[in-house]
Design brief:
The chain contains 12 helices and 20 strands. It has 523 residues and is an alpha/beta fold. The protein has 3 domains: 276 residues, TIM Barrel, CATH 3.20.20; 60 residues, Oligo-1,6-glucosidase, Domain 2 (Oligo-1,6-glucosidase, domain 2), CATH 3.90.400.10; 68 residues, Golgi alpha-mannosidase II (Immunoglobulin-like, Sandwich). Helix 7 links the parallel strand 9 and strand 10. The two termini are 30 Å apart. Bound molecules: 1-deoxynojirimycin.
């Protein structure tokens, strides 16, 4: 049984580097997050996901952890993080930390020990080959860096050696071990220990980085990685029934069966999620954006099937096990603004916030912060442009920090019309208030809840109109320029509208770029 709070959870993702700098050193911090909890609450969000805030050399923005049990100095102290849990809880906000179980930094103490020639407790904590000249059996590997006579497998960047959870198919018995080998089991226990450490301090669970990457040579079905998670997640859920786990996996039939409560629907080029919002080429530095061909782009002429083909069978196959979560974006994706303009984004967010799964809003998306072409920072590369400072108001550094502009972790959006919280809070028609209204709508109808059923009502091939049921409610969206009509199966009234949808007899008429939530009249 998943934690009961997930039923109504609406998450807000905070990139700690750039949310709010409370001490004027140019980088966001935990006290800054505490100061802004009322803002998070005002949105209607009741849960946070913080990107990694642990000690790290920051070769991959903190996804290269050097000490899992220590908050990075630049964000504050462990006590600050505990205070964040406490104050957040007082305000009814749950907090997920980011767990990186697949790799550490090359500067982690475990790795330093593991790289030594003489055998020690950590010799088997990472995946080392048997000689300094061995190749990685299809995995990227590094050689020539350590006294130990072996090469080691990496999980992502060069600075991120892969932790050892064992192999499913063993091709190289000299150095690949099965998943129940003592060293592989010790890695699992080390992860459980880290999770307990933070759960005991008051966090409410974890977003789990690259959760599908643990066991190597595991095939497409990931059976061995699932087995490992059944153990880790099973243990944690038993000991902490209120803890929630969300995986970066994007295969809910696997991840939710493996014991995760939620999985992300991620932006993988060409998948259902990406054709909804992000069917454009990754922007190239200094080059204009390509035309956006996604479903919510007004002129794309696309129907909803690119999404449904990918989504429906996975939703159906996993809905009884947990939540498959739609995101507005995250720290790895290109922000939807400006690729979708505001009218397009209004519809897109209305869709995202009326679908099943716990919604995740990436900081700044609620005010339409824009993707920017800026040089890479801490291994961000093209992702850096989605990680710029939160735009609070039009004071210096857009209210993010009191530091000098050149000291900021990343530059703020220099545009005169850079959207800000302050401006949009004051304008009842702002995008921010639109998003708040949608979160309120979601909270007002239990049929829009995270676990409430979803089914397709109308999705004709070639048609821009898409209509779906959430429980008894009917939701319709028309992202195109043509007026669309939809036959209704019963008498409804419109309880929420964008554009000018109207009901005429038993027909719903959807104006250009419109959205409607309908409730049966005799309900
Ligand atoms: C996925 C994270 O979201 C990303 O930011 C990171 O670079 C990789 N995993 C490696 O940990």
């Amino acid at each position: 049984m998943a934690a009961s709070w997930l039923k109504n959870a609406v998450f807000y993702e905070i990139y700690p580097q750039t949310f709010y700098d409370s001490n004027g050193d140019g980088i966001g911090d935990i006290q800054g997050i505490i100061e802004k909890l009322d803002y998070v609450k005002s949105l209607g969000c009741n849960a946070l996901w913080l990107n990694p805030c642990f000690d790290s050399p920051f070769r991959d923005a903190g996804y290269d952890v050097r000490d899992y049990k220590k908050v990075a100095e630049r964000y504050g102290t462990n006590e600050d993080l505990e205070e964040l849990f406490k104050v957040a809880h007082e305000k009814g906000i749950y907090v997920l930390l980011d767990l990186v179980p697949g790799h550490t930094s090359e500067e982690h103490e475990w790795f330093r020990e593991s790289a030594k020639e003489e055998e020690n407790e950590y010799s088997g904590r990472y995946i080392w080959t048997d000689t300094a000249f061995s190749r990685g059996d299809g995995m990227p590997f590094i050689g020539g860096e350590a006294p130990r006579g072996g090469t080691y497998i990496i999980n992502f960047f060069k600075s991120q050696p892969a932790l050892n959870y064992g192999y499913r198919e063993i091709h190289e018995p000299a150095w690949q071990m099965p998943i129940d080998a003592p060293d592989a089991l010790a890695t699992r226990e080390a992860m459980k220990d880290i999770m307990r450490f933070w759960l005991d301090k008051g966090c409410d669970g974890f977003r789990v980085d690259m959760a599908d990457s643990l066991v190597k040579n595991d095939g497409e079905d990931k059976l061995a990685t699932m087995e490992v998670w059944k153990d880790i997640a099973g243990t944690i859920h038993e000991e902490y029934p209120n803890a929630a786990l969300v995986s970066e996996w994007n295969k809910p039939m696997q991840s939710l069966s493996a014991g995760f409560d939620m999985d992300f629907y991620l932006d993988w080029r060409g998948n259902g999620y990406s054709v909804l919002l992000r069917d454009y080429d990754i922007p190239k530095f200094g080059k204009p954006f390509e035309k956006n061909n996604s479903y919510f782009s007004v002129d794309s002429e696309r129907d909803i099937h690119g999404f449904l083909r990918d989504y429906l069978h996975q939703y159906e196959g996993s809905k009884d096990k947990g939540l498959w979560c739609l995101i507005t974006g995250n720290h790895d994706t290109v922000r939807v603004a400006p690729m979708l303009d505001e009218a397009e984004r209004r519809l897109a967010f209305a869709f995202l916030l009326t679908m099943p799964g716990a919604p995740f809003i990436y900081y700044g998306d609620e005010i339409g912060m824009r993707y920017r072409w800026i040089p890479t920072k801490e291994g961000g590369y093209q992702r850096t442009g989605s990680r710029t400072p939160m735009q609070w108001n039009h004071s210096d550094n857009l209210g993010f920090s009191a530091a000098a502009a050149e000291q900021l972790y990343l530059p703020v959006d220099p545009a005169d019309d850079a959207p800000t919280v302050e401006e949009q809070e004051a304008d009842p028609n702002s995008f921010l208030n639109h998003v708040k209204g949608l979160i309120q709508l979601r909270g007002a109808y239990k049929d829009l809840g995270n676990y409430s059923p979803f089914s397709v009502y109308s999705a004709e091939y070639g048609s821009r109109l898409f209509a779906y049921k959430r429980g008894e409610l009917l939701v319709a969206v028309n992202p195109g320029r043509q007026l669309m009509e939809l036959g209704l199966d019963t008498k409804y009234e419109i309880v929420y509208a964008i554009g000018e949808p109207v009901i005429y007899n038993r027909t719903l008429i959807m104006s250009a770029q419109s959205f409607a939530v309908l409730k049966p009249v005799e309900w």
